[in-house]
Write a structure and sequence with these properties.
2Fe-2S; iron; alpha/beta; metal-binding; 7 helices
């Protein structure tokens, strides 16, 4: 039983297309509706070889620096529960659904994978809830604000040059 299951899992991983989704920075992926994680929770019963390795500790880069770099480098950055193709809450799903209507490059981080990242994002934006959306380096807000901007036509204006840049590349 273990061998066919591992073969199926490996075939599933090999069959995943990187171009199928947006740039996703996450420690998990989904296949046929099931979530697979590349990290192991901090469990005292887990051998240290299998514990998550947070590279920021050894590299001297703080999570605040990572958030700042994410926001600076990505025209549309969303910190959310889950990933754009598989949101893990209704608010994150709503934000992604609205943003995808504009056909802009969407980058995301799954805050459920790292509680310290979640705290760093809250500290960076001074905003308590998720998702958190940044457009061209500016903190916009959550799904309610994105939806409101969309309904007023203001989100189209904010994203217009991004959609044009994406088409020309």
């Amino acid at each position: 039983m273990a061998r066919p299951l591992s073969n199926m899992l490996l075939k599933g991983i090999a069959g995943l297309s990187a171009s199928r989704s947006s740039r996703i920075v996450s420690g998990s992926f989904y296949y046929n509706g099931m979530r697979y994680s590349t990290t192991v929770p901090n469990d005292p019963d887990t051998h240290e070889d299998f514990q998550p390795n947070i590279k920021t500790e050894s590299s001297g880069v703080s999570l605040n620096d990572i958030v700042e770099q994410d926001v600076k480098d990505n025209p549309v950055m969303i910190y959310m529960k889950g990933v754009p193709d598989y949101p893990q809450c209704g608010f994150s799903a709503l934000a992604v659904r609205v943003l995808k209507q504009y056909n802009v490059p969407l980058s995301a981080r799954n805050i459920l994978e790292n509680p310290e990242l979640k705290s760093a994002v809250k500290s960076f934006s001074h905003w308590p809830t998720f998702p958190q959306i940044f457009i061209k380096g500016e903190f916009i807000g959550g799904s309610d604000i994105i939806l409101d901007l969309h309904q007023k036509g203001e989100l189209k204006e904010k994203l217009q040059d991004l959609a044009a840049n994406e088409k020309s590349e």
